[in-house]
Amino acid sequence: MKKLIAKRAKKVVALIGIAGLCLSLGGCGKLAKLAVDSLQKDSEVAETENEEFDFEDESETEEEFDEDDDLENDSDTAAEPQEEESSRASADYNTELGDDIYSFKFALDGEVYQVPMWFKDFEAKGWEFDGDRTVELKSNQYTFSQYWEKGDLRIHTSIANLTPNNAALEDCAISEFNLSQGYNFDEDCVIELPGGIVAGKSTREDIINAYGEPTDELETDYTWNLSYELDIYNGVKLTVDKETGWLREVELENMVELEGGNYEINEDTPDEVKNYQPPTSLSDSVYDKQFELDGVLYSVACPLQYMIDHGFEVDEETLSTEIGSGGSGVITIKYKKNSMVVTIKNIADYGTIVRNCWVQSVDFDVYGEVDSFECSGGLYPGMSENDFLALLENYEYEKSEDYDYYYIKQADDDNGEVKVYVKDGQVYSVEIKNRLK
Q1: Torsion of CA 180, 186, 187, 190, to 10 degrees
Q2: 20 to 30 A Cα–Cα from 9, which one of 176, 249, 298, 379?
Q3: Is 82 strand, coil or helix?
Q4: Does residue 329 contact residue 34 with C-beta atoms inside 8 Å?
């Protein structure tokens, strides 16, 4: 059974290092919506922290435009473009490109390219990949600064995996092209865009006449930077050099699915979930991130299915929601009268459903109305503040400057912590987090 994931890429949520920089896109839009719906239905949830979704700082884009050390311009006004016909312009406009900038087409020396396109289709046009083509991307991850060569030409691209399953770079799609005349291209290479726009010939006015007013424009001392955007990962950016008055750089990005990818969803229970072994007893250390609830032992993280088997409840629509390999999100789970928002992660290398994910956080407070709840190390809601402060002497921790929040974590642990809130002389709530890689 083949099913499709989100048509458009979402916000950036994670960062890993491979050949070039690799980013992850939040690929579970439906899941996020379900979590919001659950929160609206359940007024008992007082606070939600979703540290999984770390949105990209768009100011970095502006900083990139400001860096232009190779150009010097002592005048505050742009130089007039040369009147003579540029040798870099094609004699006849390539009519295959049409007039629509949002067709995401371009031509190099008359050969037309479409964004996105499969890695192997681009390679078939004579381009040689300068990198490890076997590196795997998880679902909704992408790389950038991946270089290609073709004769004297050199180009860098982004490569994205918009399927729900792990895929090698060579089985992914090129989702972004960066074309810069005189930098990674020979100046005699003809770069054409829809509407008759040509690098090294067309002006800012030509661009606006062809495409209309940009959705955004940034002006620096040396350039005009025009953006035509459909969405955060679907747009064209055009850089016009003020000294020459000509279009100098083109960036086309279009992260949408292509036909022919592996969009299958495997709903079978992963082996990691089947083979989960809970603790046999509570550890003496808070660092171990374990808890006992009404006589049942858990670790954090642990399979969602294990929690369901021991009294936790999740609605069926959420449990059947698809989630890509390496994907994470937030859902609402319940235990008796308690409701909490937790982060989940699919650690399988293929797309599956939420039921097969792992829970990476739990949160209990003094109003939990459970028979018993205790964390490893002897920590529990309702503990006196004095006893907690005495326990705290054995651990590394940080304290919030504004509120009585304590964050217990080891210096070398970048993935987990135990967050304790003290109120009215007692431990009010305990939250355990352990993010899986």
Answers
A1: -80
A2: 249
A3: coil
A4: no
Cα 130 to Cα 147: distance, rounded to the nearest angstrom = 5
Paired tokens of 164: 């729900």
pLDDT above 80 (res 98): yes
Phi, psi of 368 (to 5 degrees): -65, -25
From residue 88, alpha-carbon distances to 92, 104, 246 in Å are 12, 21, 12
The secondary structure of 358-405 as a DSSP string is: EE-EEEEETT---S-EEETTS--TT-BHHHHHHHHTTS-EEE-SSS-E
- Of 185, 173, 199, nearest in space to 115 by CA: 173
- CA dist., res. 367 & res. 121, Å (int): 59
Q: What is the C-alpha end-to-end distance of the chain, expressed in Å?
A: 28
63-83 residue pLDDT tens: 333 444 444 444 444 444 444
- Among the listed residues 328, 301, 292, the one whose alpha carbon sits nearest the alpha carbon of residue 141: 328
Q: Reply yes or no on whether the pLDDT at 41 is more than 50.
A: no
- Let me know the angle formed at the C-alpha of 326 by 321 and 327, rounded to the nearest 5 degrees: 40
Q: Which run of H or E residues covers position 335?
A: strand 328-335
Residue whose pair of structure tokens reads 């289709």 in the numeric block: 121
Going by C-alpha positions, the residue among 424, 300, 285 that lies closest to residue 365 is 424
44 Rama sector, left if φ>0, alpha if ψ -120 to 50, beta otherwise:
alpha
**pLDDT tens digit sequence for 22-31:** 455 554 444 3
Contact 313, 334 (CB under 8 A): yes
Report the SS3 class of residue 97: helix
